[in-house]
Amino acid sequence: MLPSASRMRRGEDFADAIRRGRRAGRPTLVVHFNAHEEAGGPPLVGFVVSKAVGGAVVRNRVKRRLRHLMRSRVESLPRGSLLVVRANPPAASARSEHLAAELDVALDRLLRRRGSGPRTPTDGRS
């Protein structure tokens, strides 16, 4: 799924991305992004899926789907950046195509604000 080196594990990284980063919200998810140009490591991606989304099985399914979607998008993030994807309750019943489209819109909005230019969709759509 998502490369091990790109998985966010420390609570400080989650807090840094959420508190100091910019965010883009969609009905099914909210993306928090904080770019650290001075850090040279790989981009770190974390996921937050609360109990409001559903029970443990539903939450784990949503996390797996989001990790799978981020696998092909992580290389478009700047090195050293922090990204947290927070699932909203509608993510539990959303189709994967819909989640992918909303994730692309949110990432595009955040990366364009940063000045990286427009992204091209990675799911084959024009």
UniProtKB/TrEMBL annotation:
Domain of life: Bacteria
InterPro entries xref list: Ribosomal_Su5_D2-typ_SF, Ribsml_uS5_D2-typ_fold_subgr, RNase_P, RNase_P_CS
TM regions (residue ranges): none
GO cellular component annotations of the record: ribonuclease P complex
One function term, GO molecular function aspect: ribonuclease P activity
EC number(s) recorded for this UniProt protein: 3.1.26.5
UniProt keyword tRNA processing present: yes
Catalytic function, reaction form: Endonucleolytic cleavage of RNA, removing 5'-extranucleotides from tRNA precursor
UniProtKB keywords: Endonuclease, Hydrolase, Nuclease, RNA-binding, tRNA processing
One BP term from GO: tRNA 5'-leader removal
Enzymatic class: hydrolase
UniProt-listed NCBIfam families: rnpA (TIGR00188)
Subunit structure: Consists of a catalytic RNA component (M1 or rnpB) and a protein subunit.
Family: Belongs to the RnpA family.
Function recorded in the entry: RNaseP catalyzes the removal of the 5'-leader sequence from pre-tRNA to produce the mature 5'-terminus. It can also cleave other RNA substrates such as 4.5S RNA. The protein component plays an auxiliary but essential role in vivo by binding to the 5'-leader sequence and broadening the substrate specificity of the ribozyme.
Protein name as catalogued: Ribonuclease P protein component
Species of provenance: Microbispora oryzae
Lineage: Bacteria, Bacillati, Actinomycetota, Actinomycetes, Streptosporangiales
